[in-house]
Amino acid sequence: MSKPWILGLTGGIGSGKTAVAQHFIDLGVHLVDADHAARWVVEPGRPALDRIAEHFGQEVLLPDGQLDRAALRGRIFQNPEERRWLEGLLHPLIGQEILAHLGRAESPYAILVSPLLVESGQHRLAQRVLVVDAPEHLQLARTIQRDHVTEEQVHAILQVQAKREERLRHADDVIVNDRDLSWLKAEVERLHHFYLTLRGGQP
Question: Structure pTM?
Fold first, then answer.
């Protein structure tokens, strides 16, 4: 059997990429979530967590030895240098974790879903990129409703994520998710059937 090719799936906050990812899973496609990989590499007992505690101090750990994400976020959010140090440590480890999980795929193609696919350079792991896009007013409304956050907080996240133009520049395929869920599912199915005809992610 030929090795599955990799589809990178991304989209801004509130674009609907989680719903798209779930529908691909329902269709039997092997999917790896970069956010999950990012959590796995900092689990207790993994070398990354020791390095983080060494660098930032024990106050970034919870009493049970898990990473205190809120405390760590607080340390790096206002400090670009510390954020770069952390990214330099974690990105290669997350990349290895992702490749190991993608390597277990048995579907004709596998999906790497990552909110920071473009920014982190993870798009280089993929042969093809699908961007889920949505008008900003919909991104705001969905995220505020889902996460119970303020408009300011959503704007702050949008600032950190790649600009829409940058994401779309890397896209081979785009779903503009501004309709209902049944339309979205139909779009995913249409793309899935197209992807099954591809070898190595290209027509």
Answer: 0.84
pLDDT along the chain (203 residues), means of 10: 89 92 98 94 94 96 95 88 94 92 96 91 94 92 88 80 85 96 97 96 87
The answer to whether the annotation marks 15 as part of a ligand binding site is: yes
CB 8 within 8 A of CB 128: yes
User: Phi then psi for 49, rounded to 5 degrees?
Assistant: -65, -40
Q: Would you say 126 is a known binding-site residue?
A: no
Which residues make up the CATH 3.40.50.300 domain(s) of the chain? Answer: 1-29+108-197+199-203
The fold of 1-29+108-197+199-203 is Rossmann fold (3.40.50)
Kindly report the number of other CB atoms within 10 A of residue 45's CB atom.
Answer: 7
DSSP H helical ranges for 58-150: 69-77, 80-102, 136-147
Contact 148, 107 (CB under 8 A): no
User: Which residue, chain included where needed, has tokens 């992807």?
Assistant: 195
182 marked among binding-site residues: no
User: Is the CB of residue 107 less than 8 Å from the CB of residue 195?
Assistant: no
14 known member of a binding site: yes
Within the chain, strands assigned E span 5-11, 30-33, 109-113, 128-133, 173-176
Is residue 177 helix, strand or coil? Answer: coil
Tens digits of residue pLDDT in 159-170: 777 688 889 999
Q: Is 163 annotated as a binding residue?
A: no
